[in-house]
User: Fold these one by one.
Assistant:
Number 1:
Amino acid sequence: MKKLYSILKYACIIALTVSLISLIAVVAYVLINGVSKLSFDLLFGDYSASPSIFPAFIGTLQLVGIASIIAVPIGIASAIFLVEYTGNKGRFVKIVQVATETLAGIPSIVYGLFGYLIFVVAFGWGYSMLGGGITLAIMILPTIVRSTQESLLSVQDGLREGSYALGASKVRTIFKIVLPSCASGIVTSIILAIGRVVSESAVLILTVGMVVNKVPETLMSPGTSLALDIYYFASHGYPNEASATAVVLLVFVVFLNLLASFIGKMIKKSTYGDAK
Amino acid sequence: MRGVFLFSAVFSILALATITVFLFVSGVPFIAKTGFAEFVFGSNWAPLADNPSYGIFPMIVASLYVTALSVIIGVGIGLFTSIALYKFCPKRLVSPIRQMINLLAGIPSVIFGLFGMTVIVPFVRDYISPTGVGYGILSASIVLGIMILPTIVSVSLDSLNSVPSSYYEGALALGATKEIATFKVMVPSAKSGILAGVVLAIGRAIGETMAVIMVIGGSPEMPESLFQSVRTLTSNIAMGALELSGDALSALISTGVVLFVFTLILNVSFSLLKKEKADKPKKKEKRGVSK
Amino acid sequence: MNEFIGNMDITAKNCNLFYGDFQALKNINIEIPEKQVTAFIGPSGCGKSTFLKIFNRMNDLVEGCRIEGDFRIGGIDIFDKETDVNLLRKNVGMVFQKPNPFPMSIYDNIAFAPRTFGITKKSELDEIVEKSLRRASIWDEVKDRLRKNALGMSGGQQQRLCIARSLAASPKVLLMDEPTSALDPISTGKIEELMEDLKKDITIVIVTHNMQQATRIADRTAFFLLGELIEYGNTDDIFTSPKDERTERYITGRFG
């Protein structure tokens, strides 16, 4: 009996080692294999002579911009409604909760199909950055709603009461006291949501069209993103370019993650001071 | 101002409703036209043939295989990893390892796909596959298994950490060893949370497109071996996406509907599990109050 | 807001308060004179804090809370449709049991209420901040770190900051809900001195668990039990010759 559990213990330690090795292997492989293939032409060239990810870079920024302009205000406002106006309970909150949870569980390719049906076909936009951006916005909305809700709930009621007791209205209390008190949590979650936009590719195959060789002229033009470029390069016989782009994307994503925790800490420090 | 907030809160519901309506309105009539049994259980997928045929059964089977196998790999390793981090790992290593695993959870799936395509597939082809084919269910499952590891580790570790430590101390006080206390008391107590993590992982595995599409091969054939080019539901949609028109498009949307239904079922079971978990401590509280 | 100029006495007639089906306050009638300290005492759950919170309408925020009766401050009906609840709260300040400074600088904490009511000029704000901090006798302790985060202060300082924050709204009435129960004796003493000083201009109503505190600071005392006002009168009378047997039992420590 005792022996069996000692064996299980070693199995755990082996599993931990395997997990770490395999995950580190992915990162290390991408870095080692890709860094040597980075070149000026690939990063900043125009696509005419040799493959370049410059259009993808612009495209990624556009998608991040569109998705966050839509999802951030709507997400924060819905969380405010749920927590500050309904006390986070009751039937309506339940329904919204179910809706956001369901949205969060929908596979990204299904979002892609939806984006295709509505923006490409029904609206007649064809493949466009705007359509892709809006689809991504709907995709990240549940995450933003959820984490903002949690942040708002973490604000002590004493602060709200204090503000009301000084004669501040509900809206002023929300914007001047509640939101600033939990800004670090909200900002962190927004940056992580942006990380998801940057990482996403399945949605984009069906919505922005994977046009890799042109910087989109307007938001209604088709285009590409860094993640989509990796798939394009890998499946169209440019393995070196794929590896190099993967390095850029990985650096981008890790940077966003570090930024999220750094900014979170900075804001926390400026709101709550060095004390406690 | 209240109206603005209310409208925003309704937006999620509207979005979900729109997605559902658009998919079902565009997909269900096609399934009806083809015949439900023909579509779901038909084994021939040839949307562009002169005499087109739309059977997605091979994709359903491939999706289930890939999901099951990747979850076995991911949960097997992930659960044991979380137990190791919980009790059998030097304390000062736990927090850095956790942070690293969280960071790895953010790696884009297309990078896992690239890794699979350039490392796992050749490895499987050269060292494991009896047929000399590297693409297929095994490669996809390994890639997905690694990809869902971080999720499983962090969810399981959270549920283990939320088990009251008095259980552990109680077991030790009865003479159990550290190992027995962990495996016989703590892990079973965290069961519902771990299970919720498994359902979450199943959802991610069945819904994943990019990491799969790059290592699965892509032939719409009935899976007969782990080392054979096949298609999953997700890769069927993505691969067909570049040749969309008419009925072929409707067939893809219908595939999406099937996938959507799968994920809805998973969602419901996930929330049921969570509910059960949330209900438990409540019951205890009630007992405490009514004394 | 001009409505609140004039005297600042508080009256409540036939007050009943319900949480859903539960009646928390039963037919309370009271007249609280202006510019005095009135203490509400009674065992936990007797309704004294609930009653206090009627006067700045904080119970409006509590779901399922229903209030009956006639409530006036300086003759103005505080539940009248015409009465702006935000202006009411500006005029009727409140200090809570647990200090609740906002997570911002000391200066911004004090300036919050004036800014709420439209004062934006820096010189004006500076003046209000200094005046309020002086009145709460905490100016000397914080004048060099007005821009520092308020959460870095000790508990007693935080509570005096919260008093100063209320004073910055220039209230006519100050409601204090067990303001010293979370503080050490020295901080408590400072706050009690402060109240002596403030009652020259302001009507103060304080809920307290501490009967010595009531005898030290209150001109009048009201004893609550199970949602009823049992006895109300001059503090000396209540503590030396209570008319009701229940009051006597409570103040001599035999229940509660």
Note: Chain A has two domains: 1-35, 39-272.
Number 2:
Amino acid sequence: MIRPHRRHPLWLAYMLHRLSGLALALFLPAHFWVLSLALTDPDQLDQFLIFADNPLVKFAEFGLVFLLAVHFFGGLRLLALEFLPWSQRQKSLAAGAIAGALLISGTFLLRAV
Amino acid sequence: MRYTGFRKRANRCAVSGNDKTMEVSVWRGSGGQGAYEIFQVPAQDNQTVLDVVSYIQQEIDPSLTYRYACRVGMCGSCAMMVNGQPRWTCRTHVKKVLTAGRLTVAPLRNLPVIRDLAADMDPFFEKWVKAGGVHKPGRSRDDAIQQVSPEDPGRVEANKAIECINCAVCYAACDTVAGSPDYLGPAALQRAWTLYNDVKVTDRAAVLASVTGPEGCTNCHSQGSCTRFCPNELDPLGSVAGLKRALARSFFGGKG
């Protein structure tokens, strides 16, 4: 239950940024360890790659991409908030432009896959 | 005079046969101790949260402690937590916040409680002073009056925040204040940003220095609750961002 004084988009953006950051911080050491297996223990890496073909792992990768995207854009949002003294209107227009560009390019991306 | 007038008005309402009531939970206690007490208050077509609190004090329990002065959103003394959100109670209509006939009123968050609904504002004002909130003039009375153009970019930026009424709503909304009690808070930092942009302030580096450090502007987590709840629709979040920008610029050797 979110306390009443926190029920607004900026606070949710803050929390999403923190949680995605924490989750990525947990993921990255494991990620680097798996990569290091290529040098230290190739057989174990192969076993892991077979395990990674599991549909459930594929689905978890979707979550990972989501976390990365959320954290990346959350960081850009903070940089814009603090270093670009834009007016509210300019910020809305910029956000709209980015959202529109993502929508259009994302549609083409899906057709290409 | 005002007191009797208020009583008369409340009585007239009682006589008019309006039997609709609402359930109001009011925080009672002092210091860290206390609990909510429930009052049944007659519902009117038009009433503010401050009207409700005043009704309880004047008609039900005279010992209820709260603070107000102007009743028109000028003085900034009646801010309280209404249903868990900080609000200026004199300009918050009950209709806007009433949920299922219930209302919860508590003292402002992040401040010590003197008694009931009256929060101790001292820490809030001490931080205001700590952030360099006092104007230090660069000229004496012997100098000519400084001409300030309303179109000057610094003046335009400074003007954005001068309507602050020191109600501490932003301070109560801020989770960073809750987490680090030494943090200066949105209102004091916004004041510093106003002074930083004021052309009459000659020592801008001193203003910046007073908001640098562990209790300063870099502590802000940009949660934006200050801007979201400011009753005068000011933008403390934008002001703190401005200070961060100025600090970054001075760190990289730019003009302070």
Note: Chain A has a mean pLDDT of 91.
